[in-house]
Structure formats: structure tokens, C-alpha cells
Amino acid sequence: MRDYKWLHEYCLNRFGSAAELEAHLPVPKTPAQLRQISDERYLSTLSLRVFRAGLKHSVVDAKWPAFEQVFFGFDPEKVVLMGAEHLERLMQDTRIIRHLGKLKSVPRNAQMILDVAQEKGSFGALIADWPVTDIVGLWKYLSKHGHQLGGLSAPRFLRMVGKDTFVPSYDVVAALNAQKIVDKAPTSLRDLATVQAAFNQWHAESGRPMCQLSMMLAYTVNH
To answer: Where are the transmembrane segments (predicted)?
Structure first.
């Protein structure tokens, strides 16, 4: 694999200046900021990510105020009490996206958030304290304990809330492939560990957040 110096120089050449490059890179939230996000907002964003998966984001986003209403502001204590009959009634509500599998995921993910909060004080504490050098471990945790959070849903959710993470998007995987780090999208434990190790090396060399390294890597792919 190429070192960070190559990655930085490539991106500088693409954007023409350090200032222009920095303007195109995301900035993650601090652990303190992640702790301040309420469990309700985490559940809302988690649910938004689930509904966005496979659907046009603008359509989902336009309906989200109605989702906030029917799911009681995504208060986990209230949402977790929503049983099958309640969800069946929501399937008749034309204001929202009527996808039963996705609707069922909301109270299930509310239970995960409540379980974490009981153990750690808040869901934000889990997100804030998880080391970025094992961010794939957090993806796996969310996929295992949550619902409909496989594939890219966990890393994309983390990016949405501001947790520092790389995202193995199409361009990032193409760049990893070009550097012979992996030959396909990382799904196995071995491939995920390999990709994490590569990002950890660039992180150690540069001090940059994982989300910036991920974006810079995507910029090395020519379309």
C-alpha cells in the first residue's frame, strides 16, 4: 500500500491547494459532542438511515417530519412499547413510507439503545468512547445488536451522527483494490481487519480523522 505522503500529494494536485482540499473534507464531532446527542436523536438518525437504504434519500427526508410524529419524537421508552398491531396501523398511514420490515426495525433498535443506555448511561457514551482504531468493531456491534444495520448502514449511520469512521463506499473499495489492500468490498472479518489496519497506518502517519482519510482515498479514483 502507498503511504500517507502519496495520498496527500495526490489530493493536493487534484484540488490545487491545501485550503481547497480542507474545504472538501468532513470534520467529525468530538467525543463530548457525541455524548451530548440525546438517545431520541440517535434513534431518529438510526431509523432515517434504515429507511434511506435502497430508497431515494430526498423522498425519505421529505417524509421524516411525519415519522417524527408517528414515532413519538423517537423517544426510545415510548417506541419500544409499539407492538405488532400499532405497526400494522402505521402500514395504513400514507404520510410515511409503509415498509413493514423497516417499521419493525424501529422498536427493535429502540430496545438496543435502551439496553446500551442502561449499561453505559446513554447510547452516546458507547458511540463517543469507541476507539476509531477499531471502528469496524463498532460496525459489527451495531449490526449484531441492532436491526437492518448490515452492509454500509452502520458506517453510514456513524458518519451521519458525526462519529469518525471510514466508509467502504464504491470509490473507497476501488482505491483499496488499486493499492492491493483488498480485492473486493470488505465483508469478512479478515478483510475488515486488513482495511482497518491500513486506515490505522494512515491515521498514525497523518493524525487525520478516519473520515478525512476515507474521503481523500475516494478522491484518488478517476471517473
So the answer is: none
